[in-house]
Amino acid sequence: MPHQSEFDTALAVTRSGATSYDALLHDGWRIGNSVNGGLLLSLLGNALRDLCAPLGHPDPLSVSAYYLSASTAGPAVIETEVARNGKTMTTCQTSLIQAVDGVPTERLRALATYGDLGALTDAVHLTPEMPDVPPPDRCLSSADMPDTFKAAGPFLQRVDVRLDPSTAGWAIGERTAQRGAIQAWVRMPDGREPDPLLLLMMVDVLPPVTFTFGHFGWVPTLELTAHVRGRPEPGWLLVRHATRNYSGGLLEEDAEVWDSSGRLVAQSRQLARAPRRRAP
Amino acid sequence: MPHQSEFDTALAVTRSGATSYDALLHDGWRIGNSVNGGLLLSLLGNALRDLCAPLGHPDPLSVSAYYLSASTAGPAVIETEVARNGKTMTTCQTSLIQAVDGVPTERLRALATYGDLGALTDAVHLTPEMPDVPPPDRCLSSADMPDTFKAAGPFLQRVDVRLDPSTAGWAIGERTAQRGAIQAWVRMPDGREPDPLLLLMMVDVLPPVTFTFGHFGWVPTLELTAHVRGRPEPGWLLVRHATRNYSGGLLEEDAEVWDSSGRLVAQSRQLARAPRRRAP
């Protein structure tokens, strides 16, 4: 039996009722005070996959999550509900709940539409080219980043990130050439290949684009919507995060993810709170 | 007593229980087979405003709506729920429900976070400039569009739309210079000035960007998330719709809305189904 990847271990859910699941959050996926928000999206996505796959709709097409409180290592319960089961899509809802001093506390609530990515047409009327980024071995590896960054949490060892040098000046104490954008090759260190569930995490794995402004504080996600547009090919993914509107104490951050064939396979946008602390 | 605008009339809700409201959808806001999706967002936004304003959070910061079935003229019920009431924000949920042959049928389900736009900081680290568009009187008025377009529904008379000629070739039978984007000045014909609730509608008032490809069929929204980033100044709004990924029978469509002072006051992204019919 093949060894299970650590990502699939983290995504494991056990059905505990008609529409509820048990899960276990691991401290190894923590960044700052919370389990990585992208991993939580993948976890909820896996429970919804279990719910929607028997309806013929195994793939997340769109997931919109509202982050209510910081998730911590330990047991969690996932509640799910089908809102509408249509011919080509199922729309559903889910919540992630943890007990805090015995009180059930909601961490995330999400709406999602599932379908069958394999049933989509091949038509391409317009799609963005993959950005021109040096190959992974000529990028800045997350493993080589200063210890002050790596101290942010063990999540940084979970994903192999290779930052495009033109968007990574902040990581080596220099002014960043491209402010407001970060690009990187990403893959799982244990060889776990990308699929739609991994894409849900990959839209939130890079450092926040506020780092390119020299603003190194915590940037909590308020809302994140991910659209999965295709089943990715094996190999490296290229992820680009960018903001257009960083103002008023908030920012939107868009992610685009291309697979190794150069196809845009996921897009996301989040609304996040700007960092309150500026020092690393 | 001042005359109530037709937008505010359409948004009227009457509390019918602790967390439920009655509303009436008017045929005058129909486009195609359904009431305009942006108006429905404003309507749900108004019910949530009633719920969240007493908690100190009168303004929508983020609203994510999943469109489940086509809304029709007639009575509707709006159910609401507070998911989390925090110090600076309240996250809530809402559903729009109509009876179909006596069976309650859900039209939209949405998650939203409300706050106080007046309490945001003035900091601007990055924000996009308003696009350079000719003044409204040198743009193509929606009132001058061919009757084949106006036949799509009475909604087209509800909003005064002035299309940037460089993105409107499709409306006069010419090839569009900028494929994948539509820009226009918009305002309410009866002088109703913009506010955060009107912005929720304004992110979905322009024709779909698929028109710039000569694809004139119906483009149903699956999911739409709007972020309101500021209280708009009175006057014309400039709205830009653009897609980057129109493929596989789906497209994402982003909207950006600038107020008359040139400030970006709203952003949105929707996932929509590509048109199946190509003829107008």
List keywords for this structure.
homodimer, mainly beta
Structure description:
The N and C termini of chain A lie far apart (44 Å). Chain A is built from four helices and 17 strands. In chain A, α2 runs antiparallel to α4 (196-202). With 280 residues, chain A is mainly beta. In chain A, a hairpin with a 2-residue loop joins β15 and β16. In chain A, strands 1, 2, 5, 6, 7, 8, 10, 11, 12, 13, 14, 15, 16 and 17 form a 14-stranded antiparallel β-sheet that branches. Chain A has helices spanning 6-10, 37-52, 147-150, 196-202; strands spanning 14-15, 20-25, 30-31, 34-35, 59-67, 74-85, 90-100, 103-115, 124-126, 140-141, 160-163, 181-187, 221-228, 237-242, 246-247, 250-258, 264-273. Helices cover 11% and strands 39% of the residues of chain A. Chains A and B meet through β5, β8, β9, β13 and β15 of A and β5, β8, β9, β13 and β15 of B. β15 (246-247) of chain A pairs antiparallel with β9 (124-126) of chain B, so a sheet runs across the interface.
Model regions low in confidence, pLDDT < 50 over at least 5 residues of chain A: none
The largest chain-to-chain contact, stated as pair and per-chain residue counts, equals:
A-B, 51 and 51 residues
The radius of gyration computed from the alpha-carbon positions of chain A, rounded to a whole number of angstroms, is 18 Å
Task: Give the class of chain A from helix and strand content and strand pairing.
Answer: mainly beta
Mean pLDDT of chain A: 94
DSSP E strands of chain A, number: 17
Helix content of chain A: 10-25%
Multimeric state: homodimer
Largest sheet of chain A: 14 strands, antiparallel
- Strand proportion of chain A, as a percent range, falls in 35-45%
Order of helices and strands of chain A: HEEEEHEEEEEEHEEHEEEEE
Q: What is the approximate shape of chain A?
A: globular
User: Helix count of chain A, per DSSP?
Assistant: 4
